[in-house]
Amino acid sequence: MVTALRQRQRGAAVAVVIAALVVAGSVAAGLALRADGVRLYLAGPLLAGAWEPRLPIGVLAPVVVGGVLLGFATRVSVRMSWARLLPVTGLAAAAWAVALAVVDGAGGLTRGLSSVHDYLNDVPRVGSFAELLSGYVAHVPADSATPWTTHVGGHPPGTLLTFAFLDSVGLGGAGWAAALCIGAGASAVPAVLIALRSIAGEGPARAAAPFLILVPTAIWLATSADALFLGISAWGIAALALAARSGNRRLAVVGGLLMGLTLFFSYGLVLLAPLVLAVVLVHRNWQVLAVAAGAVLVVVAAFAVAGFWWVSGLLATMERVEAGPSAQSRPAMFFLVANLAAVAVAIGPAGVAGIGQAVTRAGRRTAVAILPLAALAGVLIADLSLLSKGEVERIYLPFFGWLLTATALLDERHRARWLAVQVVAAIAVQVLIRTEW
User: Fold this and answer.
1) For the purposes of burial, counting CB atoms within 10 Å of the CB of 362, is it exposed (0-12), middle (13-18) or buried (19 or more)?
2) What per-residue confidence (pLDDT) applies to 54?
3) Residue 95 DSSP SS3
4) Residue-wise pLDDT tens digits, 355-364
5) Domain that holds residue 296
6) What's the gap between Cα 185 and its chain centre?
7) Cβ(156)–Cβ(200) under 8 Å?
8) H helices of 214-331, where?
9) Angstrom distance (rounded) from CA 381 to CA 375
10) Is the whole-model pTM more than 0.85?
11) How many domains, in total, are found in the chain?
12) Strand partners, 49
């Protein structure tokens, strides 16, 4: 038993060392490419953000919040009742994300969403929702008469519809949009815990809870619309996990409808399929899978009837991306590796160590490894597709919570240390790099 424990610890250490080398190598390669005149269309050599070390007074926010959460997170996750733990983790995740975002002032909460390349820029163009859906694809090509902004043209209409709806009910602007994204993204933490509990039991879910909160990923949770995608998809998967375990068909319908909706927020979320299959088929519940698939098709059909055909949108977007200057300039081989390095930065050393544990225990029928390995499969497929070259610390956000469930495999005696490392890593990224999101 002692030997097995040492092997697992060694696996975690090896994973962290490899990740550190990949990150360092990617940064060095990125700097070399930039020196040779290659445009990476990133402010830095790896992340979408410029190297800008600073120590503003706002850094006290994550230091204080992180310190408080460190002091209580591990004990609370063990002692608090499950019913209370779920909302508490969501609130704590939101607090940590906001604390990191305001390092450079309150504007850090809305900077990304206020960009001229983002969704809110096109909200004034939305007349009726019916016209938006029926004419959406026509505005995707960059050479069309009135093309959508970068983010709108690169995604289905779900996000623009959502922000346009907020605007129509008097909740327009970056502030309300940021509040929605933060709330949705933070709510993914209890959703992931529910799914993990349904597969591996309450113990692993409680063990992973602090790591789902105090993670560098939170930097992008409070600043990008991808947090909205994360929240919707996480609750869809959680509903399917519960449905598969209980056989509840109504939950299967709910899960299927939510997963169907995710397809209309980001085309890439189809790569959450390995997670969907994992949470359902681990219980060998084919009926739930069939019901959920039917619900997904209902959503797709509803959008088609309203005027937006998902496949047409995907093809138009792929053409726009492939013809764009960033796709032409960004070297594929570099980003095959650099994307994974950015993922390592986002999930932090503890997340990497947990993945190392999950990979080494993959063949031992360890239930805890199911979710992170399924998420890892989705990330690897996305990376190999080369549809996203760079900025994946934001784009892959819907996968990160599931990757972090692997932290439940970390040695209990060292979890507090790993958690402290996560806090330091998150603050370091935020004060050393001025991220664009």
Assistant:
1) middle
2) 94
3) helix
4) 999 988 765 6
5) 2-435
6) 8
7) no
8) 218-221, 226-246, 249-262, 273-281, 286-306, 310-323, 325-329
9) 10
10) yes
11) 1
12) 435
